[in-house]
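Open question from group meeting: does this chain pack into something compact, or does most of it stay loose? Before anyone orders reagents, we agreed to write out a predicted structure and look at it together. Recording both the input and the output here so the notebook holds the full record.
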Amino acid sequence: MHQLQHLHQRTCLWLEALVREGRLYSWLQRLYWAELGGARRFQEIVTRWRPSGTALEAYEGIIADEFRHADLIKALLDQHELPLLPAPTSERYWDPVWGGITSFEDACAAGTRGEMLARNRFRVMIKHPVTPQDICELLMQILPDEVRHAKLLGEMAGNEAMKRMHPHHLEGMAALGL
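Structure tokens returned:
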């Protein structure tokens, strides 16, 4: 089975289980921390690797988008009067991926893969009939940014870094059960 088809199938099963078990809004609470964590990781990349010019501009835009995504999620949680869960102490996907980064290009490749994961998951969720309308609307606001981020980061990473980071990505995917 093609990897994207497999991911689509697994995402559908995961989503259906969340809805069936009444845990979809708990996932949304975790997504808040994932978006905030993404902004912070991208800030750390800028601090560590010091990109300049258009690369710095791209990262600054991505960081602003990730913070905005967290704000959008928080607003939806507030509408449902749901508190934030405590921040996670580890991140299943990022813990194995982060350790493989040895260059700015590697960091871009890692970011590309992370944004692609979100993009693919959001696309499935938006189209799936069990996803509540308010979550669909939220994801439709975020999705264009995820698509743009994956493209920008992929261009900055280049093919060699994408290949170098692939084993770390697979390790992160395995940690997610994908």
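Observations to bring back to the group:
The CA atoms of residues 106 and 164 lie 7 Å apart.
The longest helix spans residues 133-175.
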